[in-house]
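Treating backbone geometry as a discrete language has practical consequences that deserve illustration. In the encoding step, the backbone of a single protein was reduced to a row of integers, each denoting a local shape. The amino acid sequence and the backbone structure tokens for this protein are reproduced below.
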Amino acid sequence: MKRFTTISFALTAVSIIIFAAYTYKNPKEPEYNTIRAKVVKPNVQQTIPETKEIIAEETETELQSSLIELQSWEALLSALSIDMNNDAFDDQIISIRKSGSPSIHLVTGIYNPKTKIYERKSEIDTKITRPSTFSFSVLDMTGDHINALTFTGLNEKAETVLSVYLPDTKEKKFKYNKIADFTADATIFIQQLQRSDPYSFSQTQGESFPIWVYSSDSSKSGDSLDQIQTMYDWDRTEEKYVKVSETRVAGKKIAAAELQKIQDGTEETFENFLDGLWYKTSADDSNLRCIYFNAAKREIVFSADTIQEIYRWNTTSLRKNSANLTMINTYVTNLIRRFDVTLNDIDEIKVKVNDDVKMPITQETLWDGTYKKINMQSLSSQQQDFDLEILKRIETTSHIWTTNTNMSVTIKNGQYTATNELWTTRGALTSLRIKGTTLLQFKSFGEEKFLDGYYLPSFVTTKNGSETKETLTLAPVTISIDGYTSTTSKAIKLERIQPPTS
């Protein structure tokens, strides 16, 4: 039974991916009362022609031109219109590239209603050098109803960068104070907590948003996957983010030879390692979640219950024992996701949503968790062995199957013979799997169709004293691309008696 459950679980995962290839259903958007971040990514295709990535606009507030005067050596990537100094006038934040500088810069222009000019007040060198991983957002990080500028991406060392800048409300002239600045070789994310209704109506302060930083444990050897998980939160006294807790997350050790096969410094090798079907280990049969990586077709498919999301695999950025993946939804091209994939073992990964523009980032999302890879070759072999066991179980030894209408049936080597007082018919049978369920297909060679078509088998064994009675029930079904369906035809019940063994 345990073996059956394991095989059924894995095959159900395969069926979900097959089903996703035929039918796409829009993901259900969860409802939140949380303040939404405004996320803007650079329009790389327009301004950086040498790159291969195509990044779409992500918010309605994104503009197509800069209202801030640019220098001849500056190129606009993207722009966001929002009030940063609480004067009821929209200001503008733009991301730019400078000739001779590899990193992205953020410039804030404050609108002057007297001169009707956006005055350049702040410029930040983000140290982020990979445009496809870069995004910036404006949200109330501290819960004090003050818009904070946050940005994240990968630097030239492929490390994750996340920084937060808060406008200084005590000064007459606009300026930012840096309240958080983190760099790590793994995941960094902002946990957007749900806030109360009084906060939404500006009646009270809200909870601040914690920042979680994951980094490799430098005290361990190179083959260790241990990580340090650190939580930072806003301290109103110190007016910056301070460390609240630190926890070591134990990982596994991988032999150097095996590690070399997975990551040799090239994106292609890591993508080939991911290639295939992965299932979430914490999911059960009724809540199965899978990710299918198709490196050849540059496609990633997410499946959970009735949800199927198909993405174009855009970029892979390697880090130590992990990678940052950027993907674009095939059907909703302004839906761009970034995932951190961390290596846990040679057949195990940890997935963390790093940026999802459709929902606030909480500590756990639908796809966050640990995934195991399904060995398709081993699975196919197990399926064949399992189906052979079923055929062997129903085969006739010296004790034939009978019905309550005096029909006798013998089954041997994939062939069957059915006989009564009036006629005899012969045919063949085989097993097949539909959505993780084994069915039997009978094909009659004669005019009599006593056993012909698809059946769902079930076994019942009962004991009467020293004798054992076996009952094989064959329920007729029809099959389609969506699976199988029971028919109104009467089930066929076969029985045989096994005498006591000596």
Remarks:
- The longest helix spans residues 2-22.
- The helical segments are 2-22, 44-47, 197-200, 256-262, 267-274, 376-394.
